[in-house]
Amino acid sequence: MGTDKKSEPLNRVDGRAKVTGKAKYFAEFEVPGLTYAVMVTSTITRGTIATIDTKNAERAPGVLAVYTHLNMPAIPGWADQPNSNAKLPSGGEKYRMLGSNKILFNGQPIALVVANTLERAQYAASLVTASYNKTEHQTDLLKNTQKAAMPGRFGDYTRGEQKEAYKTAPVTIAADYTIPVEVHNPMELAGILAIWEGEDQLKVYAKTQGVKATQRTLAGAFKIPEKNVQVHSEFVGGGFGMGLRTWPQEVAVAAAARQLKKPVKLVMTRQQMFSLVGHRPYTVQHISMGADKDGQLQGIYHEATAETASYDDFTEGTVAMTRFMYACPNVTTKYRIVPLDRGVPIWMRGPGEATGAFALESAIDEMAYKVNMDPLDFRVKNFAETDPEKNKPFSSNNLKEAYQLGSEKIGWNKRDRTPGSMKDGEWLVGYGMSTGVFGAHRGESTCRAQLNADGTLILQSATSDIGPGTSTAMVQIAHEVTGLSINKIRFELGDASLPPSGSQGGSATVSSVGSAVFDTCTALKALLAEAGLAFEEGTVKPVTGKTATMQQVLATQNKTFFEVTKSSKGGAEQDKYSMYSFSIHFAEVRVHPHTGVVRVKRVVTVADSGRIVSPKTAASQMIGGVTGGIGMALTEEAVIDHRFGRFVNNNLGDYHVPVSADVPHIETIFIDKPDPYSNPMGSKGMGEIALIGFSAAVANAVYHATGKRIRELPITPDKILSA
Amino acid sequence: MKQFSYVRVTSSDAAIAAVSKDKSATFLAGGTNLVDLMKSGVTGPERLVDINRLPLTKIEATKTGLHIGALAKNTTVAEHPLVIKHFPLLSLALKAGASPQLRNMATVGGNMMQRTRCHYFYDTAMPCNKRNPGSGCGAIGGFNRMHAIFGASDKCIAVHPSDMCVALTALDAVVTVRGPKGERTIPFGDFHRLPGDTPEVDNTLQRGELITAVDIPFNEVAGHAHYLKVRDRASYAFALVSVGAALSLKDNNISDVRLAMGGVAHKPWRLKEAEAFLKGKKATVDNFQEAARIVMGPAKSQGSNEFKLTLAPNTIVEALKLAAANGNI
Amino acid sequence: MDDQLRNEEQNGTSRRSFLKQTSLMTALALAPETVLKAAESGLDEKIAAAIETMPLNVVINGVKQSVRIEPRVTLLDLLRERLQLTGTKKGCDHGQCGACTVHIDGERVNACLTLALTTEGREVTTIEGLAHGDELHPMQEAFLEHDGFQCGYCTPGQIMSAICCIREGHAGTPDEVREYMSGNICRCGAYSNIVDAIMDVKQGGKKI
Ligand SMILES: Cc1cc2nc3c(=O)[nH]c(=O)nc-3n(C[C@H](O)[C@H](O)[C@H](O)COP(=O)(O)OP(=O)(O)OC[C@H]3O[C@@H](n4cnc5c(N)ncnc54)[C@H](O)[C@@H]3O)c2cc1C
Ligand code: SF4
Ligand code: FES
Ligand code: FES
Q1: Minimum distance, in Å, between the CA of residue A253 and any CA atom of chain B
Q2: What stretches pass through the bilayer (chain C) (predicted)?
Q3: Domain A26-136+184-276 has what CATH class?
Q4: Which residues line ligand 1 (CB under 6 A)?
Q5: In the CATH hierarchy, which top-level class contains the domain C54-129?
């Protein structure tokens, strides 16, 4: 570990459960007396509920309760907090599900029906009717830019000259970029299964990226001690960010279960997931850029304006990359949010950076063409040797090597750089590239190790696995530290009663939890050494000169296992260095000039994310990110009809997540060099960089193919035809 | 879904009787559209008459053409050797629709009867004249990127979503239906209708009538067929615009041609003027473009589907080019 | 009146009105009056269950299942909520994702749009029916080997679909596999590994 030694590709340790259908996701636990909750949602966008009629629903067969704002059991932790957001730009009211007759966004739950079968609950929900007093709503960001406010967390940034240096540079470009609402849409439907085992003992099976966070939220909501809340979430059918919050409807279901004294399960509909579990916010950006004739950047101005809810203040690092990515003396960034009558956004894979990178990396490409340079040479010329924002050295930065490896693989230099010059039959051929970057974060994490007399090692931490292969990576780290055979190591997660860890987000899991595993296993080795034992040849043996076996040592110590628990977090190095993961994406596209169809034909993606702990699952992260990037670039857009404030394509048939036919073979390359400072393994995050920037590589390839610069995603046939 | 009763019938007569005497009853074939609409609350029959076990699945050659039972599955039709040999356009169109799983379930009759995918039609909280006559058309002035450029009315601008029907209309298929009053045939082009003032009525089938078969007359255009479907993702998506083109070519002279479009109207849109223009002419890009120009005359944009005014003629030309070049499939 | 009592009372009236509004009556030899009387005297739960449900006999993974269900129950909900065969997944409930793919008489279909009663007398195979004891099906093995999944939620549907993709003869080239696997969405984006897994099984030539 922390060396140049490469890790072995390992099949997922939980793979068997997944391919046999034995892996159980939250909605799949068999619970006696289970009841089913179904939500009824508002059909207006702003106003109040005038009347709500639940009689027919209550009388329908099998119905146990119909909750509305009129009879919803109080949620003690909510009732405590002031019901206003005076500090937010909106200054609006807080959203409390079924807490009042106020409607703050379309699709807001107005009733929760509980019945003894799913079909009966669904039918009864269809019988609830409501009348409203509508007031005017605002869902269109472009019509509400006057409300744009600077959020506390992301202030304006300027380096170099205040005056807009880019305007006086010999070569300038300026343009606007638009990202639509995108929705995480993990394949598993969202929801929760809540069971009260006594008045103040709650057990939930949840779809969450943070079992501890869910535990805290629920404990806070019901004002019970955290230890009284059991949260189980061993298998999670994808999250991509939507599982970073415990959503109000999940709390409401727990409240219903408490009052009914019955287990209640909510599985949301796909439609509801568009409004109630977050999304990537609609964002408009402006970038102006100035450079010398020889391609040296002089100034960048980057401004982003994104939506948030009227009742919550959502922010993300949209302009972060622009501040440090290139060696540019004058940089100004601004970030604004606009409160709208919509459900609140939440970080979506590659959060704000993916939005920002689309604009920045498109602009970089445009500028390269404007100064008549190859976009790759342009990036190398403006390469930042040290972080110009923080004025610190990078902990590691192998971008130049990544540029080279990727460009060789895709045949970058063999292309004709002139836009519109390459053809394959009727189809125009284009190559594009871009860079992605995301902070290499490390949080605090704890791991418990239990080495049993039979030589099996159990490791535990309250982390999650929404798909990246956490257990597999952890087993691999433990294996590499101890030398114990893989099949003797088991990693347990997804249970809030395990030693604490942070939520799975921001690509920090391997770095944070992995470090805890690393430190715990290292401590375990020391413990064994004291007992005259050591890991050897895949098992535990007496050290030279000793004869007592592990079983004997345990017997004399009157124990059945050795146990070590260690917490781990980064130290001073975290402040000394600027730590980032980088990705370079190369895409080759075909564009049909007459139908406007764009197809991604080939992808080479290079990750500079430190040492690769688990090569197989890491490669999957990269292809997954690229696939998400193809969706962002070409197909994904959730549309609101602003007349109604309502989504008009909130389903998987009309919101186009890429299908297999959209995705070519994807080649992944890892630099696989340990970062000397990130953590004991030398790893850096990878889930986000896999997607960040990819959409720009496609847009740049489309430009190369057609000479058309599309600055509004997704690049659907209509945009090619009308550009 | 509300409760409904369910009967499984084994004879067409029983099926017709069950549906014609009960206003709230409806046929259930593959269920891929009906069950979806019931779940969405768009329709709520109280009685389902399961016709899946009726003996209407045959695909066989007759003296004049091919006879396809109304309950033949979309996959079976698409993969059938006689279909591939004589009517490759139909096979290609079917394969461009839905997904392999859905095609295994969907039937010929159900595919013809499938309702529009207009978002406002599906969302019961939105106005829609087709779902709820008189409530207004949500798509007019709204998000109508997928909507019609031909034959729309001020009541409804929806499109018929089927791919199969584009091929069947081009191939001059004839629909056989049986009802309480006996059997009749309907030329495919007359089966679906334009919305006019009654968009709630999709087609000319009468209450209680059961589609029993589709017959396609043999033709000369099997040698050069192409179905070109332009959509927002590479597969498993409805058409923005699709074109079915089939040609009979001798020395690059067009002796016969069939041309129809999907995704542009409330019914599969046959391009007869284009066919008439092309017949007897050379298969050249210029002629294809002129043919496309001729049929685009009455096209009208609704706002967000403006691009279809460019995409539709372009797709006609591309489909003809590909059909001409393809030889056979 | 306490809550429970009130609930029961309401359910009593509701049953009656429910029976009145449903046209189920016509389907049955029972005279509506008899049933309504029964509803009044509290016998309705049993009668309702009897008239609202129908028998279904279906073989699932080789096991004969005889159940009574409401006609509106889909095969997917029957598997997941009643038979505890939760390997088959729900991702959309509207035929738009393929997570619910199962085989009926050997053909892949979407269980969410299949009313369970339509499977009377048929054979259904789900992901749970593939492995023989500890021995995985070659397609399961290949998915494991090629890391053809991440979160695993779409995986059962992908595997059921993949088996048919080969059986139907649509695994000739990677591009053909891509097209014929496009009815199964994988949001984690494991497609390129899934294609490799399928090509591998196809080339391995094992009977599947
Ligand atoms: C996600 C998704 C994507 C799809 N994509 C496409 C696509 O790209 N292209 C495309 O063409 N289609 C597509 N479809 C639609 C699909 O082709 C239709 O749902 C299908 O063809 C309907 O056939 P069915 O047998 O399942 O009909 P059912 O759902 O059983 O019935 C539909 C209607 O037809 C009536 N009916 C059925 N059979 C008869 C009969 N013999 N006589 C009289 N009435 C009858 C029924 O009463 C019902 O009203 C898609 C569907 C879904 C769910
Ligand atoms: S276009 Fe037709 S189907 Fe769509 S909303 Fe208007 S009336 Fe309804
Ligand atoms: S759950 Fe059946 S297709 Fe999505
Ligand atoms: S593995 Fe997660 S959706 Fe496919």
Answers
A1: 22
A2: none
A3: alpha beta
A4: A 653; B 26-34, 36, 70, 97-98, 102, 105-107, 109-111, 113-114, 161-164, 210-211, 238; C 95-96
A5: alpha beta
